[in-house]
Amino acid sequence: MPLDESQIVRFSRQILLRAVGGRGQEALVSARVRVTGAGEAIATACAYSAAGGSSVEALAPVRGFPIAPHRPLSGEMGAIPDARFQSPDVPLPDTAQLDETVVVIADGGLVAAPAQSCTSCVLKNVSALRSPPARDDGAATSQSSGLPPPVDLIGALAALAHQRIVLGLERELRRIEVAADGSLQSLPALRCEAHR
User: Fold this and answer.
1) What is the dihedral of CA 152, 156, 157, 160, to 10 degrees?
2) CA distances (Å), 70 to each of 30, 79, 125, in order?
3) What is the average pLDDT across 171-195?
4) pLDDT digits (tens, 9 = 90+) for 30-59
5) Are the CB atoms for 105 and 85 separated by under 8 Å?
6) DSSP letter assigned to residue 97
7) 100-139 confidence digits (pLDDT tens)
8) Contact status, residue 176 vs residue 104, Cβ threshold 8 Å
């Protein structure tokens, strides 16, 4: 769908990026994300995705999501989304391959899986996501700084992972975790027995 003049003005900085351009921005505006789950990182991913032009539909209110939490997907309500942001406790589809891009977002990291990824491989990576270390009072922190894990950064990276998949810049399963020192690290994706 071509961009109208107001969208060209709104997204002009993104359009100037070589990796995005006009066609890439059209793809981002056409992208639809359904949110199943809650948490600060998911709220941040929703905000960044919506700000980048993608339609975001939260099936339930997402606390902290500053943009209309029930913004419907483009076109017909209930249309199949291109992607889904979800928390690790939400089950993945019971299929051999994913029909849509899925970004599983947790406080300790994320797993970004493009459509057609092996569901067993995705589950193996989600299971491997570690929780961030906890403080004495039970709250999660990074061990070196004593600060909470960077959930806003995880949410921003989740939105970026989705956008990279939409733009065709990322085609592989990816796992990013919060390290013990509070930094983020991209880890090799784990593979199920059938894909080793």
Assistant:
1) 180
2) 17, 14, 29
3) 87
4) 999 988 887 888 888 988 999 999 988 876
5) yes
6) B
7) 999 999 878 899 999 999 999 999 999 988 766 554 555 5
8) no
**CA gyration radius, the chain:** 17
Structure tokens at 172: 């592989």
More confident residue, 65 or 178: 178
Strands, E assignment, the chain: 32-36, 55-58, 83-86, 101-106, 109-113, 174-178, 184-187
CA–CA dist 66, 48 (Å, integer): 10
The CA-to-CA distance between both ends of the chain, in Å, stands at 39
CB atoms near residue 134 (< 10 Å): 11
Task: Tell me if 83 sits within 8 A of 33, measured CB to CB.
Answer: yes
Q: Compute the mean pLDDT over every residue in the chain, rounded to the nearest whole number.
A: 81
- Residue 118 main-chain phi, psi, to 5 deg: -70, 125
Tell how far CA 106 is from the center of its chain. 10
